[in-house]
Sequence to fold (314 residues):
Amino acid sequence: MELITGQTELFTDCRTAVALGKFDGIHRGHQKLIRELFRDKEEDEKAVVFTFQRPPGTFLSGKPGQVLLTKEEKRRHMAELGVDTMIEYPFTEAVCHMEPEAFVEEILVRGLHVKKIAAGPDFGFGYRRRGNAELLEKLAPRYGYEVKIIEKERAADGREISSTLIREELAAGNMELVNALLGYPFSVWGKVVHGNHLGRTFGMPTINQIPEKEKLLPPNGVYASVVKLGGQSYQAVTNVGYKPTIAGEYPRGVETYIFGFDKDVYGRTAQVQLLHYQRQERKFPSAEELKAQLARDGEESRMYFRAHPELADM
Fold:
């Protein structure tokens, strides 16, 4: 996948089908929109995803916040979806005040030679978000592109799938529902770093990750998980949190015990998929009581996989 980031001057020598949006989470609704790029796609067209590049840790409102997918995770997903080009367009002061008609003409038409635009019904762009789906359709005859407004996907209970809904369910630890709304397992990607090696003394060696600060995580606690590492999948149990039983202060991390795994993987990148919330994190009176609880956590996770064998290799 070609990545264009930080550039305000865009030019391509071929025609494009462009998906517009924030794509926080790349949930089932976003995937539906991106799939539209490939419908009736001609050989000389590129499938392009256009999203604005915001300052770190901000949403479209400009307020500090966290994201369902980090920048690197989002890029991984786009590549897996078969996108030809992903554009992270700088949201500068000039862009903020650009009239919506100018955005269409200068960026989409002149810069990208757009022939198809796919967007959600609530997509807004241009100064004070005055641009919308209606304007895209109004300008289509003038510039010779096709517009596809993609309706929202819905959950099994009829609610519209949105990043806001996923955030609410993630905050509640409803991982099965979160994963159903996303269309893939909620994951933490990151390098394996050194921890305090206490798990090894318990006979349960773990891998440790420190997620980026912008990464939104579920509640601190213990989760049945699957680890993707080196092209292999492993059943595991994961703790998200601060290790309150252990003396000292620790950053919020993700610590995972992979069943039957004892290899040196420090510095390698692992994907930890969180599938089921088992219990909240808590402080134990002693290391021995923590060890006993970790053994119970591991067995509960194994029982979960025995009851859901289809989840063992997602």
User: Anything to note?
Assistant: The CA atoms of residues 107 and 306 lie 52 Å apart. The mean pLDDT is 90.
